[in-house]
Amino acid sequence: GPNWIGLAACESGGNPNARNPSGAWGCYQIMPGTWRGSCSDLGQHGSASTDAQAQCASRLPSSSWAATGG
Questions:
Q1: How many CA atoms within 13 Å lie on the side-chain side of 2?
Q2: 57-60, long-range: CB < 8 A, 24+ apart
Q3: Which residues pair with 25 in a beta bridge?
Q4: Of 40, 44, 57, residue with least CA distance to 5
Q5: What share of the chain is helix, strand, coil (3-state, %, to 5)?
Q6: Mean pLDDT along residues 40-64
Q7: Are 30 and 44 in contact (CB under 8 A)?
Q8: What 3-state class would DSSP assign to 4?
Q9: Coil, strand, or helix at residue 11?
Q10: When comparing pLDDT for 26 and 2, which is higher?
Q11: pTM here?
Q12: Rounded to the nearest 5°, which phi and psi values hold at 19?
């Protein structure tokens, strides 16, 4: 599977509170709609823990990670 540490570094510089003008948020720059659809049980988009962000990222298809060529 993806290298989650490398992916977080690529997407956000490893910042769990990183925010993009597009609405993407967190270590993995997950969009609000993606979070609602796949990860709403893990907490709120914009305030979930780093562990919850990683759990959410692990649920998403590798095609979600265009920035890493996935």
A1: 25
A2: 57/2, 57/4, 57/7, 57/8, 57/27, 57/28, 57/30, 58/1, 58/4, 60/30, 60/34
A3: 19, 30
A4: 57
A5: 50, 5, 45
A6: 92
A7: no
A8: helix
A9: helix
A10: 26
A11: 0.82
A12: -125, 135
